[in-house]
Amino acid sequence: MAGIKALVGLSFSGAIGLTFLMLGCALEEYGVYWPLFVLMFYAVSPIPHFIAKRVSDDTDAASNACRELAYFFTTGIVVSAFGLPIILARVELIKWGACGLVMAGNTVIFLTILGFFLVFGGSDDFSWEQW
């Protein structure tokens, strides 16, 4: 039952983050859809973790080179997702208010992705077959 509550909470927070992103694009005052390019970063950010989990050996070492490289790439993707709206606002493609809404959406979405990995990625006893 705890898994279902976590899944509902994570999906609710993901919906809140996407709402911030859509508000930054669709409000009449802003009306430009350039910030939607951060959706690409949301989709790409978990990929290094999945590759590292698949490729790395199953030892419980404190540090693993493949895992550290995945953390590095994921950090670069997340920083790029926060940098894109700032660059778009600096070149005046979007307004600063839209940039703030997109940054709030980025924060909520990336915390949701982190929460998903903390809740469902740590234990091996979780199975999607129970749904």
From TrEMBL:
It is found in: Endosome membrane; Golgi apparatus membrane. The chain crosses the membrane at residues 6-25, 32-51, 71-89, 101-121. GO terms for biological process: late endosome to vacuole transport via multivesicular body sorting pathway; negative regulation of growth hormone receptor signaling pathway. Its main location: membrane. It comes from the Eukaryota. One of its GO terms (cellular component) is endosome membrane. Keywords: Endosome, Golgi apparatus, Membrane, Transmembrane, Transmembrane helix. Pfam families: Vps55. It is a multi-pass membrane protein. Belongs to the OB-RGRP/VPS55 family. This is Leptin receptor gene-related protein. It comes from Lepisosteus oculatus.
